[in-house]
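Troubleshooting log. The previous structure file for this entry was overwritten by mistake, so regenerating from the original sequence record. Sequence copied from the archived sheet and checked twice against the printout by T.R.
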Amino acid sequence: MEILTMNQTFNILFYVFIIAYSLLTIVAALQDIRLQGFQYWHSFYFIGSIILLISLLPTMPQWVLPLSLVLLVIIAAGNGILTNTFQWNHIIVRTLISFVLSFVWYKYFK
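Regenerated output below.
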């Protein structure tokens, strides 16, 4: 049995985190749809999450992952404004997560 190096473990954890972030966004959108009914802006959550997943493919340009993360922040802010449920802490946390993930992506991947 081969033992993973620290770098390989880090890579796997990064990819797992991105996948979990994307899937949790989809789950949150589905929950929102269940409570409010489908609104057109829910589609953007699915599109942003799918782009985030696709950005992990090795053939994708390096800028796709940060772009999809920024898109998800904009979608969350827009949804909050449209539904009068805007929460600064939610946007700040999403922005910080997006910044850290983008930095790690540029520094250690591609």
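The chain is about 75% helix and 0% strand. Archived copy saved in two places this time.
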